[in-house]
User: Which sequence fits this backbone?
């Protein structure tokens, strides 16, 4: 490793500092020296932060032959801090590394603690990785002839991340292999793994990564590296590969996981507090097998009639034959345009969004009123409308099995008392205005008689959601945020019991809206939800341990 070369260079620095200093520079506004203009801003930051306490410091960015600095084997966030006599050298591989280094130096000075020599993130994080007693370098990755884009993406990610972890680039063979030690990909025939589950296990000294066809192989790679190799938060958040002299994956491992939801999306609207540095890559639509269907979002307003009236502001008459024909014609034009573009319904696109507009103005004509009396809810006519649309689209496009997405929203949150959904119906329940302080199941909310459709305690949501779970097998939940205020999952202790409750109900997807002004906890919430979505069987103690770990990593020693 280059650490030996670097240390050797430092041992000779004392004799060359006086001449090497000619290569450094210091602006008139700083006391700290910098080796180039690229690091001037960090010198000024250090001077502004520490004032006269800054000490004699020289900082630099990247390699520097005058100081004998070679950072070629450092990661981008790597850095060194070295004491040479009365001078301290601080060098970062990139801006990211130098920023970390000067902040560490400043914290030590302010705390009055000794400045120790530090080498951060040089070389590979894992010095030695073994699988079942055999060094990783002895293994060959084997991909069967029967594969898909997700499996090939998983293979690429495994090779790339193993190289990053321990510096070994694994060979890859497609088809049969005579290699003595193999990491073999397979598709599973276990339907319980749904679209994204996996199993990884040892088989006679070989590692088998067995995944559901759509996305299981990709998840098998990430969860193996996270669970067995110490690559924390690889599924969500700022991933961290812990440094280790040796990681020894034991014989007999056999792990199976299926995510709690077919669809899971913590929506943060791309705000600054949601940005993460994660080592995994995002697959293309093809590499993710075109993914699960997304959440519904007022899609009915995309289909207009009667001179283009917009149903964002009032609901159409769901019992009117002309309305159905207009929606059907508009939807089929959309489907045919996708087909003309080379796409296949049920593959590249899987759903039709006719979720109601953002209002509670339902039609009260005689036919709609008859359905209202029959189903005791405005959702009745809407569900009947969606059932028919799904059946007629399946007849027109056999085998497409397009989901018809609707909202349970405002007065349609109350489920129909009699009507149930067919296999094409997909319902997103919007929990707008519910209690953010207590679990979703209502077990800790007081009972109130004045619950409304946009302001209610959780026992009312629980009553409605439990009926919707009977109405349809395809139920999503939208944990609804009221912008700029406290809302669902601000109280992080609710996440585990809520996810257990959602699992019990058979909820298939979760759209978690977290776009409100942050209170500093949003990144933690997302990591907690991601981990629980993979491991809803964790105990309360395990959840607490994971929470404390995340808080300490995010906020440091003062967490």
Assistant:
């Amino acid at each position: 490793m280059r650490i030996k070369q670097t240390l050797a260079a430092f041992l000779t620095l004392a004799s060359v500092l006086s001449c090497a200093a000619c290569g450094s520079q210091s602006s008139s506004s700083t006391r700290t020296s910098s080796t180039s203009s690229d690091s001037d801003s960090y010198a000024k930051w250090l001077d502004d932060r520490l004032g006269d306490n800054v000490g004699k410091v020289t900082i630099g960015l990247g390699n520097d032959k005058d100081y004998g600095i070679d950072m070629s084997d450092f990661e981008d966030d790597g850095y060194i801090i070295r004491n040479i006599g009365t001078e301290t050298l601080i060098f970062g591989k990139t801006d990211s590394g130098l920023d970390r280094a000067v902040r560490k130096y400043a914290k030590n000075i302010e705390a009055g603690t000794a400045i120790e020599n530090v080498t951060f993130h040089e070389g590979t994080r894992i010095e030695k990785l073994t699988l079942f007693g055999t060094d990783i370098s002895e293994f060959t990755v084997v991909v069967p002839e029967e594969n898909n884009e997700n499996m090939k993406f998983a293979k690429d990610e495994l090779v790339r991340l193993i190289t990053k972890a321990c510096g070994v680039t694994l060979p890859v063979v497609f088809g049969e292999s005579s290699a003595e030690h193999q990491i073999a990909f397979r598709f599973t025939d276990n339907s319980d793994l749904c679209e994204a589950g996996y199993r990884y296990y040892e088989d006679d000294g070989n590692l088998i990564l067995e995944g559901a066809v759509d996305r299981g192989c990709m998840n098998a790679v990430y969860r193996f590296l996270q669970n067995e190799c110490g690559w924390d938060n690889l599924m969500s958040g700022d991933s961290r590969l812990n440094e280790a002299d040796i990681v020894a994956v034991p014989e007999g491992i056999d792990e199976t996981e299926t995510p709690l939801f077919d669809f899971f999306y913590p929506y943060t609207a791309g705000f600054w507090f949601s940005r993460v540095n994660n080592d995994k890559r995002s697959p293309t639509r093809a590499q993710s097998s075109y993914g699960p269907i997304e959440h519904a979002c007022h899609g009915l307003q995309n289909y207009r009639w009667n001179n283009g009236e917009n149903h964002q502001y009032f609901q159409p008459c769901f019992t009117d034959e002309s309305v159905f024909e207009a929606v059907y014609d508009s939807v089929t034009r959309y489907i045919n345009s996708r087909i003309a573009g080379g796409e296949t319904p049920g593959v590249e696109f899987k759903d039709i969004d006719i979720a109601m507009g953002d209002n509670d103005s339902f039609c009260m004509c005689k036919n709609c009123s008859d359905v209202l009396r029959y189903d005791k809810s405005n959702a009745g006519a809407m569900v009947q409308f969606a059932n028919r649309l799904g059946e007629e689209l399946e007849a027109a496009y056999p085998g497409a099995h397009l989901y018809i997405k609707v909202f349970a929203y405002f007065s349609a949150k109350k489920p129909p008392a009699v009507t149930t959904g067919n296999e094409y119906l997909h319902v997103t329940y919007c929990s707008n205005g519910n209690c953010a302080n207590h679990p979703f199941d209502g077990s800790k909310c007081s009972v109130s008689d004045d619950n409304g459709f946009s302001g209610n305690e959780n026992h009312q949501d629980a009553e409605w959601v439990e009926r919707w779970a009977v109405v349809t097998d395809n139920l999503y939940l939208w944990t609804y945020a009221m912008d700029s205020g406290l809302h669902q999952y601000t109280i992080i202790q609710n996440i585990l019991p809520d996810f257990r409750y959602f699992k019990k109900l058979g909820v298939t997807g979760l759209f978690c809206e977290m776009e409100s002004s942050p209170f500093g906890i949003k990144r933690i919430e997302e990591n907690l939800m991601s981990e629980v979505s993979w491991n809803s069987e964790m105990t309360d103690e395990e959840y607490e341990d994971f929470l404390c770990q995340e808080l300490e990593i995010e906020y440091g020693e003062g967490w």
Q: What stands out?
A: Residues 97 and 515 are 30 Å apart (CA to CA). The radius of gyration is 29 Å.
